[in-house]
Amino acid sequence: xxxxxxxxxxxxxxxxxxxxxxxxxxxxxxxxxxxxxxxxxxxxxxxxxxxxxxxxxxxxxxxxxxxxxxxxxxxxxxxxxxxxxxxxxxxxxxxxxxxxxxxxxxxxxxxxxxxxxxxxxxxxxxxxxxxxxxxxxxxxxxxxxxxxxxxxxxxxxxxxxxxxxxxxxxxxxxxxxxxxxxxxxxx
Length: 187
Fold this sequence. Notes:
The chain is of the alpha+beta class. Helix content is 37%, strand content 23%. It is globular and about 55 Å long. The N terminus is likely disordered.
């Protein structure tokens, strides 16, 4: 018996309708606000992005994206659960995370051209909102204030990451000092 491809099986299509549905509306704006990259945007700016969002349904077990693929979209889980996984050196599946409604993946793909680092699969039937890189770039090009707000969000995230790295480095130095004092300098 021939196995159907994802497209033939209807994977990624909303139930009962061909293709994807646009996901604009207040609920989409609220979901977009949860994405740190977009968290500094106003409701009006998020509304511009929400107009381009697509909503897709995936059946249990469907692959939403594969490791190694080119990045193309930000995805937000609306319903159901998805798992983020990689293959280890032995070829075994290792689950890195399980994402629930309101959580997201692929946000950095809106800005860079690096391939996906993990595979994401539907653990159960789910709905996903997707904002494509092309639509995101077009909105940024059309709206200077939107582009500036995204830049501010990136700077905030970078500052936060720097603070965390600084705290970790200080903690490691303290632990090394404590280890040296307690073990006569041996590690």
